[in-house]
Fold this sequence. Notes:
Layout: H1 14-18, E1 23-29, H2 33-39, E2 48-50, H3 52-58, E3 64-69, E4 72-77, H4 83-93, E5 98-104, E6 109-115, E7 118-123, E8 131-132, H5 140-146, H6 163-175, H7 181-185, E9 188-190
Antiparallel strand pairs: 1-4, 1-5, 2-9, 3-4, 3-9, 5-6, 6-7, 7-8
Helix pairs in contact: 5-6
Amino acid sequence: MTGDYQAEPAGWDWIDEEYPTAFTLMFVRGATPERVIEALGADPAAAELLTAEATELTLGYPWVRVGRADEWAFAFDNSSVKFSELGRIARELSAGTDLALLVSGPNMDYFYYFADGVEVTSFEPLLAHDRDGSDPDRFVPQMRQAGLPVERDRDRAGPQRSPRAALLETLTLALGIRLSREVAMGPLLTV
């Protein structure tokens, strides 16, 4: 990809409308939805195919909704898995593949990218200039293109769009991850 490449927006602006409160969103390349359910501590055999609306009406809280978007299994999770457990789960699920994880809370969001069990990069989308990991700058060109503040001094104007949507746009640009509102809110395996 050259620096002049301009991709069409992936259409992530729906995320803030549909998921305004705390949740986690995980993408695992090549995994099955059942494997992700199991890794999150639930029984895939107990999963029901439910829409987001039916999940709220039927299950209430907590829940995990899992599906597939191209080569990526994805999971929306509000089951209150402990943060320390999420790290272990992410390392295990990323063994031999890669995993992107957005932990969204009421006051702050945080992003992690793992490859083969190693945390490659992690950062708070609103403060994306402060990155950690074995290769913290892995997605800087895509982050910049999506509108995340990648340099402390140069990005003083602040984000022009939701940091969550900009982060997810980064994943589209860097990894080809796309997830439409229709798929995310439609029938998914739910426990």
